[in-house]
Amino acid sequence: MIPDSIEIRLEIDIKGEDEYFNFRKDYQILYQNLFNVSCLAEHILSSLGNKFSKIKESDSNKIKLQEVELPLFLLNVLHGNLNKNQNYANLLKVPFFKALEINFIDYNSEVIILQYHEMLHKFIQFYINDENSLKIVIGIYLGEKGIKYPDIKIGSKICGIFVKFIDKSKQNIGFIASTLVTELKKILDALIDFKNFAVCYIYY
User: Fold this and answer.
1) Is the N or C terminus of the chain more exposed, i.e. has fewer CB atoms within 10 Å?
2) Helix, strand or coil for residue 182?
3) What's the start-to-end Cα distance of the chain, in Å?
4) Among 202, 190, 203, CA closest to 158
5) Residue 81: CB partners within 8 Å, gap ≥ 6?
6) 110-160 residue pLDDT tens
7) Around Cβ 1, how many Cβ atoms within 10 Å?
8) Distances 196 to 58, 66, 130, 152 between C-alpha atoms, Å
């Protein structure tokens, strides 16, 4: 049995991408193995749900970035277990929908923003048939903290995630296709004045 609260502090700058993923690699292996123990899977997901509830209730300017990043990272890691059986899928829905209520783009962390976009893409099957949710998520991808991110490197990565998102949802977004085309046209029309050429990635 693992504790409800696992306080893990990053000893490195959370924005250092290579160092970040190397640092988190051991935790990824650990939690994947723990999740394979059936008696622990439900407890792990319950703990994640509690952490997301805490984040939602906290002031985004006061909570430590590590406390926001860790559960988001672990949720993305556990996505690999989504198709193991229906029971796991149902368990994963709880922390995911709690995470979906949090506006992660408010946090001043590129790692958190990238993890957020990854989560929206990876768990699309949970909301693929919800028109309102799809519109909101597409709006996030097309926003200033999405493919128009001012840092070209981050914007390019989000573009890549967005392409995968569209590929997964292309059979289901017919009812919002006109909205998507309209928003993409606005971005295309603005490209002449827009400095972040990462946006062009979508169209080639």
Assistant:
1) C
2) helix
3) 49
4) 202
5) 32, 35, 36, 41, 88, 92
6) 889 999 999 999 999 999 988 888 888 988 998 889 988 888 888 889 989
7) 6
8) 33, 28, 31, 6
Residues 114, 151 contacting (CB under 8 angstroms): no
**Which residue, 162, 127, 122, 156, is CA-closest to 142?**
162
Which ranges in 58-200 belong to alpha helices (H)? 65-78, 86-100, 110-122, 131-141, 152-169, 177-190
| Rounded-to-integer distance, Cα 58 and Cα 31, Å | 25
Domain ranges of the chain: 1-125, 127-204
154-201 pLDDT, tens digit each: 888 998 999 999 888 888 777 767 777 777 777 766 655 555 444 444
